[in-house]
Specification:
This is Acetyl-CoA acetyltransferase. This protein has twelve helices and eleven strands. By secondary structure, it is α/β, with parallel strands linked by helices. The radius of gyration is 19 Å and the shape is globular.
Length: 383
């Protein structure tokens, strides 16, 4: 047996919690994290005395020194282990992997993993910052990098706006049915094509929301969850990561991502393949990111996404429902952890738009401009 396969179903997500999403003036990231963590503990049916590790993703728009320790104090905890981590939107999956490693080596027994940010009501300038020496040529904003990636994908594979629309329409349809979503407006193909250009060839509806909010989960061993009487633990089947340090201009390719490495590790650990996945929650900061992730995960061949996704394949009544609570394009742009929470709901059978008889859910997290990637595979809590 491969060493990683022995970890399959040994660990669970025991609890989930989140705040409202959208514009939340007057809230600090500490208060949002605290609210989400309280929700996750209540969902797990445990008190905070069961927690001895706190891992938090660094707030993107409001970085603070020793933020992990400040959060632990706000929670009224003195954990054995904790701190803040930054891999952009991939940090959430990375922190689950760190928590599992820490528990496996006896450093802690149960971990809170959380993230909160306030770019909507606070400072969103981090997303518009200049990008290195190339800023003198107009290289500003996160969108600029993804626009370049999309342009390259169009050149190499003939990708069309209609292909990207399939992703936007699925996320927006599902978000419109989610009472907690920030943007609850469905999107038609004609509306997508009429959407104004933000940074050519990216349209407005290719770009995710800017959102305030917080989210949290509890990770522990499956046997500990049983002994504590956790009511709805969801097993972790596989996890994988990948990253590159290269900036866009220095990369050998712009159309293959670290999703290849991350998913290969996750699938191997889970003993599964793309054909075994019933529902996906894919990081859709921009539609091209989701398109390339699905290609690199092996759901469809490179350059054939449009034909593969046709006919509503990614929608709730399709073959592979994606972002069933709305994703970053509709539920909240607060990156990553909400996708994991929706994956947990799907595996519990409690999602707002529930995929019938779903056994396995794959979740992607991504950071930077295709710099980091995390893949998580969850199993049905009923086995």
């Amino acid at each position: 047996m491969h060493a990683s396969s022995a970890m399959r179903e040994k660990y669970v997500i025991a609890g989930i919690g989140h705040t409202a999403f959208g514009k939340l003036p007057g809230r600090s990231t500490l208060s949002l994290n605290t609210e989400a963590c309280r929700g996750a503990l209540a969902d797990a049916g445990i008190g905070k005395d069961a927690i001895d590790a706190v891992f938090v993703k660094v707030p993107t728009s409001a970085r603070e020194f020793m933020y992990g320790q400040k959060l632990a104090e706000a929670l009224g905890l003195r954990p054995r282990l904790g701190g803040a981590w930054d891999q952009g939107g991939a940090a959430n999956v990375a922190l689950i992997a760190h928590a599992i490693g820490a528990i496996e080596t006896g450093q802690c027994d149960a971990a809170l993993i959380c993230y909160a940010d306030t770019p909507r009501s606070g400072n969103r300038q981090v997303y518009a910052r200049p990008r290195g020496d190339d800023a003198v040529y107009g290289w500003f904003s996160t969108a600029a990098g993804y626009a370049m990636i999309l342009r390259r994908h169009m050149i190499e594979y003939g990708t069309r706006p209609e292909d990207l629309a399939a992703i936007a329409m699925a996320s927006r349809r599902h978000g419109a049915a989610n009472p907690n979503a920030q943007l609850r407006i469905p999107l038609s193909l004609d509306q997508y094509l009429a959407s104004p250009q933000q940074l050519e060839p990216l349209r407005r509806d290719d770009c995710c929301l800017v959102s305030d909010g917080g989210a949290a989960i509890v990770v522990m061993r499956a046997d500990q969850a049983r002994s504590l009487g956790v009511p709805h633990p969801v097993p972790i089947l596989g996890i994988g990561q990948g990253q590159t340090s290269g900036e866009l201009a220095t990369r050998s390719t712009l159309t293959t991502t670290e999703a290849v490495a991350a998913s290969s590790r996750a699938f191997a650990m889970a003993g599964l393949a793309p054909k075994d996945i019933d529902v996906v929650q894919i990081y859709d900061c921009f539609t091209i990111a989701a398109l390339m992730t699905l290609e690199d995960y092996g759901f469809c061949p490179k350059g054939q996404f449009g034909a593969w996704a046709a006919g509503g394949r990614l929608e709730i009544d399709g073959d592979l429902p994606m972002n069933t609570s709305g994703g970053l394009l509709s539920e909240t742009g607060m990156p990553g952890l909400q996708l994991i929470i929706e994956g947990v709901r799907q595996m519990r059978g409690s999602a707002n738009l529930q995929v019938a008889d779903a056994r396995n859910c794959l979740i992607s997290n991504q950071g930077g401009t295709m710099h980091t990637h995390g893949t998580l595979i969850l199993g049905n809590m009923h086995g």
